[in-house]
Backbone:
């Protein structure tokens, strides 16, 4: 016996999928930037590795998860290109604060990195997160419109 999926479930699943795919698209660009800045071994350190390839794979997994969260939380607000780009940029800033300034340092046994010095040293990461968010929002909207 097969259970029919409700329209609400289909919509939610589509938002999660479109967000994850948008996150992967944004993650590829940001991951390439991180590779050029030598940051991928640091990401790999989350699992006890120093391999740039492992760092890239972890980064892509995180990118897909964060993208799915975008679809879940902001998907219904992403209705035009202005909102896709603006909400995406804001989402990138939020994850810049949450990721490299709060969560990652805490996972590595350090405290939050919210001092002016730490934040100013993380400007390249901020730019990468903003670009990630913009691409995530844009791909999300494109996929959503394509499915309609």
Residues:
């Amino acid at each position: 016996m097969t259970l029919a999926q409700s329209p609400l479930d289909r919509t939610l699943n589509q938002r999660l999928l479109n967000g994850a795919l948008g996150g992967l698209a944004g993650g590829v660009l940001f991951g390439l930037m991180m590779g050029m800045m030598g940051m991928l071994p640091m990401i790999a350190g989350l699992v006890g590795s120093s391999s740039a390839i492992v760092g890239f794979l972890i980064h892509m997994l995180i990118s897909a998860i964060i993208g799915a969260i975008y679809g879940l939380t902001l998907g219904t607000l992403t209705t035009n290109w202005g909102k896709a780009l603006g909400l995406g940029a804001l989402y990138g800033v939020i994850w810049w604060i949450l990721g490299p300034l709060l969560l990652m340092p805490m996972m590595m046994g350090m405290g939050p990195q919210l001092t002016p010095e730490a934040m100013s040293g993380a400007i390249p990461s901020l730019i990468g997160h903003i670009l990630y968010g913009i691409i995530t929002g844009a791909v999300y909207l494109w996929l959503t419109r394509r499915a309609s």
Q: What stands out?
A: Residues 18-147 form one domain. The first helix runs from residue 7 to 36. The chain has a mean pLDDT of 94. The chain has one domain: 18-147.
